[in-house]
Amino acid sequence: MDVAITAELTGRALSRALHATGRGVVLVASAALSLALLVATVLATAFISLGVGVLLLPLVTPLVRWLTGRCRDLAGRAGVSIATPYLPAPPTERGVVGWVQRCRSILTDPATWRDLLFLLLNVFVGFVLGLLPVTLLVYSVEGLLLSAGFWMLMRESGVDFWYGFTPMDTWPHAVLGALVSLVVFAIWVAAAPGVVAGHAYFARTLLGPSERAEIASRMRHLSETRSDVINIQATELRRIERDLHDGAQARLVAIGMKLGAATRQLRTNPDVAETLLVDARNATASALEELRCLIRGIHPPVLAERGLEDAIRAIALESPIEVDVIADVPGRLAAPAESAVYFALSELLNNVVKHANADRASIDLRHEDGSLRAVVIDNGQGGADATLGTGLRGIERRCATFDGTLVLSSPEGGPTVAILELPCALYSPRTSSS
Questions:
Q1: Which positions ≥6 away from 90 have C-beta within 8 Å?
Q2: Residue-wise pLDDT tens digits, 32-43
Q3: 269 φ/ψ angles, rounded to the nearest 5 degrees
Q4: What is the DSSP string of 339-373?
Q5: Which residues are CB-neighbours of 227 under 8 A, at least 6 positions away?
Q6: What are the pLDDT digits (tens) for 135-146?
Q7: What pTM value is reported for the model?
Q8: Contact 397, 405 (CB under 8 A)
């Protein structure tokens, strides 16, 4: 058992080192591209006064941002997330005036100058850190090959070859060279992932958003979510007004008319009056049921009385497909957050029933580290895309209002996995039916 575990750990370490070495090759290529794009950007900026740079800079900048974007992606694979720092591009006019406006927006964006500094330093940092894992791997393989007998071929050709500080001229020296190469190989396995991660942290220092960009991004996000909240509230108010007008109000008017007719028939025709009163009573029950449904659409009573866990279990019980619920929310959330999660999960289950062609789903709802995380999985046909419909986009907007996210994975053929995360605190012990 210990041998198997050791072999598995060794395999994982080798895999990580090989992946890091491959990323090192990419870093060497990025260093070469950094030099070329740095020279092109500097020349385009210098030629702005001559007019040529006005045309060149907007053409070179997308290439620079493409390269820095790939470096951010590479850092993300090393476990270092880097947000995009660029300010939103302002609207521009057509013609020469538009080119001048684009140049101005590029030059006034602090991220442009941080990109240029990254290009300058990456010529050296990217080349050295990218080449180091490759050099260690090649050097260790070279030592193993020489120690396996290639040193004899070198001797026969009249070349005195040294590996490290060891002359490769006898078998004892070859064995010593093999030990050195194994040490180099071990250093490569241990150091390669760290070297590439070091470049990722270097990239985050220069390619991450500045304080100004973070503030601008935050303001833009707040503006968008505020607009979404206003639109959602207006839509809900219109829906409530329409439901009241077309449903409960119409029934109440009909009840009033039947009661009036019953009053007129009470003395002259008691049987007809009794029938009208029975109809009015039945219409009253229907109106009450419609009002209860309307209240559930605004804020479900089970959510207010029993909390989020029981409310989600109630949704699952009412679903026409089998839904397994695992919930661990040891407290109550703020009412707006609970309502947002409830309706988001309800909409996700409705999408499963309507579009996924599934017969089974599961909900895993947990509160950990200050965030509520819900994972909805179904065994349907997949192919869900948030960009093609309003339902999933509505869930995304509802989550974004609370700084939450919705991540969707739905390959063709399934399964579909929707992960909803909402940062929120618990403020009271939960109320449960158990």
A1: 101, 105
A2: 998 998 888 888
A3: -145, 80
A4: HHHHHHHHHHHHHIIIII--SEEEEEEEEETTEEE
A5: none
A6: 888 878 777 777
A7: 0.53
A8: no
